[in-house]
Amino acid sequence: MQTSNTRSYTRRLLLVTAYLGFISLGLPDTLIGVAWPSVRDFFGRQQSDVAWIFFGAGASYFASGLLTGKLLKSFGIGLLLGGSSLLVAASALGYSAAPAWGLFAACALLHGLGSGAIDTGLNHYVANHFSPRHMNWLHSCYGIGATLGPLIMTSMLVSLGSWRAGYATVGSSLLILTGLFIYTRKLWDTPGESTDSFAEAEASVSMLDALKHGGVWAHMLLFGIYTGLEVTVGQWSFTVMTEARGMTKETAGMWVTIYWASIATGRVVFGFIIEWLGIDLLLRLSMLAAVIGTGWFAAHLPFSPGALALTGLGLASIYPCLMTRTPQRLGKARAAHAIGFQVSAAMVGAAVLPSACGWLAQLRGLETVAMTTVAMATGLQVIHEVLLRFDRRL
């Protein structure tokens, strides 16, 4: 039997491990945004071919998110974290060594499979066992990884002229994290901590029953648009600034890094004030900031790269706050399925919307990407306001 001190220690260790898990999620997700111009030229591809990366990762992420509940019941979260992190590491190392475009694009499938399982499992665990403050801080760790990704890739491009070195560096780091997850795997698999809630949910609310609830679909739509917006800004702003606005790679890479750093920093700061301000008010203010930030960047006003920092701060709390509201709004039993749906919908948005922007950039020019982000941010705010009015009627 565990003593109270042992349980407290285990709880803290699991939370730290969850933080590391989200750093591992963020590290590879943002590499392609900085690497793409070099990758595109190396393989002789068109601008729109980046869609293969987004769709490959998105499709496998979608499938992984839907199946995570079953995988947790079968293997436990400890093995799931270790195995999934290994898949993400393999994808990054595969990107670094791929001799042909087809093999490079295929690595996106491994990336999505591993990331989807980590994302769904950790979000469900934290939403049910920790406060909204920790949920924001957890996702700030994703922002840390997402910030380090462009920084690593930019430094490799500038110092070595090699996008392969950037992927290899990240892949090696992920192997170290994989070892940590496997080492702590038995601590996760405590009865009542990771798998029981999924079993209870399946007994009381089936997957099909969850999909009949309108709130589930509204949340899925919000997550799809949000991640599409976050990824579009992060992955395309470097190309917009360097190829449409004549900015140097070093400067553009710095601003993309600042964008991701703003998301990470915002989540840390908002974690301190969320319980005082309230989740819904913070969400409304954040979405307004995202609309202003994307509009500023699209209008190419003075100091427009600085708009990326405002956009990042606006986006910072949206994902973790919506995730925290899921059990509160939908109930814990339904949320066990809904969180997996949300993660899957998020990946659909992350694949479809940035890919669509690639087609728009090829047909209408890169500046249309910036204008499209304004429409995404506006749509996000409108849908959330409708959902809030629905909540008040309940």
Describe this structure in words.
The protein is mainly α and 394 residues long. The protein has a single domain (13-389), classed as Growth Hormone, Chain: A, CATH 1.20.1250. It is 88% helix and 0% strand. It is built from 16 helices and no strands. Helix 1 crosses helix 3 and helix 1 runs antiparallel to helix 4. It is globular and about 60 Å long. Mean pLDDT is 82; it is low at 191-195.
Give the radius of gyration. Answer: 20 Å
The CATH superfamily bears the name MFS general substrate transporter like domains
Q: Find the count of extended strands (DSSP E, 2+ residues).
A: 0
Count, helices:
16
pLDDT under 50 segments (min length 5)?
191-195
Q: Note the run of SSEs as H and E.
A: HHHHHHHHHHHHHHHH
Q: How much β-strand is present in the residues?
A: under 5%
Provide the number of structural domains: 1
Mean pLDDT: 82
**Derived structural class:** mainly alpha
The gist of it:
This protein has 394 residues and is mainly alpha-helical. It has one domain (13-389): Growth Hormone, Chain: A (Up-down Bundle).
